[in-house]
Amino acid sequence: MRKLKLEQPYASMVICGALQTIPSRWDDIKEGEKILIYADGVSQQFTKEPLDFRNEVHRKFMNELFFGNLPENTYPVNKYLGYVIVSIAGTRTKNWPISTDKFVFVKNPHVFEQPIKDFKCDIFQLDKQPAHPSNPKRMERKGDRLIVPVGLSAWQQLRDEEEYKDVFVFWESYMGKIVPPVFANILEPPSLDDDDDEIWEVHFVYENKVIKFVTNYSVGWNMAGYKEDGKTKGIEVFQFDLDDLSPNSKLGFFKKRETIRTAKSEKKSYVGSGNNSEWVHIIYTPMGGMTRWKRR
Prior knowledge:
Layout: E1 2-8, H1 10-15, E2 21-23, E3 34-42, H2 56-67, E4 74-76, E5 79-86, E6 103-116, H3 123-127, E7 131-133, E8 140-142, E9 145-149, H4 152-158, E10 168-170, E11 201-206, E12 209-215, E13 220-228, E14 231-239, E15 242-245, H5 256-265, E16 279-281, E17 294-295
Parallel strand pairs: 1-3, 9-11
Antiparallel strand pairs: 2-6, 3-5, 4-16, 5-6, 6-7, 8-9, 10-14, 11-12, 12-15, 13-14, 13-17
């Protein structure tokens, strides 16, 4: 059993299952060992706006926020959050801000029922702390419907009549199993014979509320373009291709009064962590608000 300090939001990303690799500080680490994750301050990369979508870790961070697997703003620090198990399997993630080539693959993240503050706490006492498995929310396909869990900011954007069509997430390999084949429908619209392969409705779920949209039948892989050094470059995204509210949707768009009230409740605090602080605030810009993106 080992202890590992990680800055936020990396610590929370490991515990929620978004990152399957962690920096290795040891030469004798073995498969099956338990690694206790301690949140130690906040990364300066996440106190600046906007985040860098070219950075794989930043893209994962924004995706997990979208699905509601990470807090929108406030993160615990100076506490043990949970643990992971060393594995020989996993997906290596680039752009870890750690100056080492040594990484350990991990699996089975668990969250402590109560975070523990004392880093020097006896390791055997930590091993007895109650914890539950981390079960990150993911998209789920049910026939011609796509069920998508979302966090607060994504939910508010989906309820905005002027912004809902801009909602998307960054492409990850597992998404190809949800909408196979990965490159379907890029060159031409689907034929009537392909109806069984298409997604007709996307249902977004926030807490116990659902808003439903009909699609243009091109849900799935796409490229988004951005400008860099005077050149247009592309990055892979998962597009929801929303057309309009479904006739089956009991919820609709916010009324103007609701939008104003919601915006006031969403004020963010962009501060770092002090030595005695137990919480930090991290900037989050909803992905659909990136005006630099141009759908191809």
